[in-house]
Design brief:
The structure is a single chain. With 78 residues, the chain is mostly helical. The protein is built from three helices and no strands. Helix 1 crosses helix 3.
Length: 78
């Protein structure tokens, strides 16, 4: 999978997550506000976000975009 495809999938998934956060916290659907409730454009955005999440979840090469590291441990001199 190309780097731009992985990056696009990550960005779309983040946008979808933020939209769901707005829906959960304030009952405000930004996608529906911008494109109309369940218009063809809204549905395209929802499908692209879903496909992006599926891609990030099931394509192992996409996991390299997300770097999870251990917390930095400081050694204190006593």
């Amino acid at each position: 999978m190309n780097s731009w495809m992985r990056t696009t999938a990550l960005v779309l998934t983040i946008i979808g997550g933020l939209n769901w956060g707005l829906v959960g916290l304030f009952g405000f659907d930004l996608v529906a506000y911008l494109f109309g409730p369940m218009s063809i454009l809204s549905r395209i955005v929802y499908v692209l976000v879903a496909l992006s999440a599926i891609t990030l979840a099931f394509v192992p090469s996409c996991l390299s975009l997300i770097h999870i590291s251990e917390p930095t441990r400081r050694s204190y001199i006593s």
